[in-house]
From TrEMBL:
<comment type="function">
    <text>Catalyzes a proton abstraction reaction that results in 2,5-elimination of pyruvate from 2-succinyl-5-enolpyruvyl-6-hydroxy-3-cyclohexene-1-carboxylate (SEPHCHC) and the formation of 2-succinyl-6-hydroxy-2,4-cyclohexadiene-1-carboxylate (SHCHC).</text>
</comment>
<keyword id="KW-0456">Lyase</keyword>
<dbReference type="InterPro" id="IPR000073">
    <property type="entry name" value="AB_hydrolase_1"/>
</dbReference>
<dbReference type="Pfam" id="PF00561">
    <property type="entry name" value="Abhydrolase_1"/>
</dbReference>
<dbReference type="InterPro" id="IPR022485">
    <property type="entry name" value="SHCHC_synthase_MenH"/>
</dbReference>
<comment type="pathway">
    <text>Quinol/quinone metabolism; 1,4-dihydroxy-2-naphthoate biosynthesis; 1,4-dihydroxy-2-naphthoate from chorismate: step 3/7.</text>
</comment>
<dbReference type="InterPro" id="IPR029058">
    <property type="entry name" value="AB_hydrolase_fold"/>
</dbReference>
<comment type="similarity">
    <text>Belongs to the AB hydrolase superfamily. MenH family.</text>
</comment>
<keyword id="KW-0474">Menaquinone biosynthesis</keyword>
<dbReference type="GO" id="GO:0009234">
    <property type="term" value="P:menaquinone biosynthetic process"/>
</dbReference>
<dbReference type="GO" id="GO:0070205">
    <property type="term" value="F:2-succinyl-6-hydroxy-2,4-cyclohexadiene-1-carboxylate synthase activity"/>
</dbReference>
<dbReference type="InterPro" id="IPR000639">
    <property type="entry name" value="Epox_hydrolase-like"/>
</dbReference>
<comment type="pathway">
    <text>Quinol/quinone metabolism; menaquinone biosynthesis.</text>
</comment>
<feature type="domain" description="AB hydrolase-1">
    <location>
        <begin position="20"/>
        <end position="252"/>
    </location>
</feature>
<protein>
    <recommendedName>
        <fullName>Putative 2-succinyl-6-hydroxy-2,4-cyclohexadiene-1-carboxylate synthase</fullName>
        <ecNumber>4.2.99.20</ecNumber>
    </recommendedName>
</protein>
<comment type="subunit">
    <text>Monomer.</text>
</comment>
Amino acid sequence: MNIFVNGVSYHVERYGDGEPLLLLHGFTGSVETWKPFLPYWRDYQLVLVDIIGHGLTDSPNDPARYEMEKAADDLDEILRYFHLQDAHVLGYSMGGRLALTFAILYPHRVRTLILESSSPGLKTMQERRERMKRDEALAEEIEQYGVTAFVEKWENMPLFASQKRLPLSVQQQIRNERLNNNALGLANSLRGMGTGRQPSFWNRLFKVNVPTLLLCGEWDQKFCRIAEEMKEYLPNCEMIKVPEAGHAIHVEQREIFAKIVSRFITRRRV
Ligand SMILES: C=C(O[C@H]1C=C[C@H](C(=O)CCC(=O)O)[C@@H](C(=O)O)[C@@H]1O)C(=O)O
């Protein structure tokens, strides 16, 4: 279904009853990311959102509308629309940056927080400026050469090298999900909520008191380093390094990922 949220038409899908679990995909993803998990998480009310600029959610012309804080405000409205006081929140990569932002700005709305291969942004303005420049160049590339050419480049980044081990059918599934996005949405997502663009939340991690689980794949050295460092600041946090997985743990170790999430949430059911 699509619902109007702060002037943006959001595509949201809900499955099941029970405790709500809000699921936030990564950059170039969509609600399709989470469909393989419907059978595993039948005990929960799954709320799947196409993040602004992705999937069947609007792609506004103004990059400012994609800002992380505004996207978090949208999540607050989406929970309100479904009369949900709070939810367990799981975010993958960009979706994890949004999930963390939501937990910081709306702590009363987050029952537990699960961050897969994510970060609180970049620490210094210098790093942020450099990243914003890179992301702007990438955004212009997407607009100039189109989504297909971008996906070809994106899926071949070293960060996703371990996905080459996956069956070709699974690789094609991921590619199709990426291809089902539009150039304006992806470009403005980078401009508005990219890693360099979002505020650095490193200095606010100590205030995140909700039970938090950090997940990283053992082959994803960069994001495991980030998770190890985040753990030092988060007061109520566990970390799991998942064996034989890279950045997209949920793709490369689906069963293990499903079990880890269920176990973490079940231990904290209300
Ligand atoms: C390449 C880097 O950053 C990007 C990597 C992962 C994030 C993501 O959401 C990827 C999802 C996917 O394609 O499976 C993305 C983001 O957080 O927006 C980052 O731009 C890097 O080295 O930091």
